[in-house]
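Troubleshooting log. The previous structure file for this entry was overwritten by mistake, so regenerating from the original sequence record. Sequence copied from the archived sheet and checked twice against the printout by T.R.
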Amino acid sequence: MLGYGYQTLAQELNRLGKIYPFLQTACIGQSAMGRDIHALRIGHGTKEIHFNAAMHANEWITAPLLMQFVEDLACAYARGTAWQGRNVRRILSEYALWAVPMVNPDGVELVLHGLPEEHPHREALLAWNKGSLSFINWKANIRGVDLNDQFPAHWEEEKLRREHVGPGERDYGGEAPLSEPEAAALAGFTECHDFELVVALHTQGREIYWNYRDYEPAEAEALAERLALASNYEAVKLTGSDAGYKDWFIQHFRRPGFTVEVGLGVNPLPVETFALLYEEVVPILLTALEL
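Regenerated output below.
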């Protein structure tokens, strides 16, 4: 796996759909460049859970981590076998998991494949990237907006806190909340469901963020500690950060929301670490499915 881009995701969704017909796929919206933002559903329980990944472009490795998790879950379900000591058929009779593995497909493509001559945003992107053709550090979407600074949860305060006043590789929250189609699609998708909890996969730090300005429910800290115990990650009470997806979910729905910072190192994490990262993240996601 040299890199897991948009075409690979589409091929994997098609492959899994053929092997496991009980998987449901959907499109929750389009990116700024018109790429479908895919969602994948497994399970038929009444309790809905949501996991998402690759919101930040150079954190693309979270997309195959989430897709591998869904595939292994589907395999155990189809065979009727336990996975890591869990009765998967029982879990998926109680819960339905909606996964959005690549929130930011345009940004992922930019990080993985660079800037071709014919790219419609070439001049602007070069300017925002200070003339460099290396986009390996790019976190934003194709319009230079950080999607995890886009949600209407004290967005104005986050904008004032950030030093970035215009488009660039990271930390620019846009001209208004949900101005970017990817963030708007994810928010709209979330509002159309009744999620018990959400998990957003990012890299890196081996940390789990669980709170937001005391809007979180009383049980959130204990739930985070359970996730931390399953993974040897640290549950961290975060301050001085707003406008993220889990912030908005907690504030808007008063339900548990978690940001999981997978792995340790410098983004993008090396693809050679995939097996180790997967070993770390599986217990977190399985535990979150049963919280």
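DSSP finds ten helices and ten strands in the chain. Archived copy saved in two places this time.
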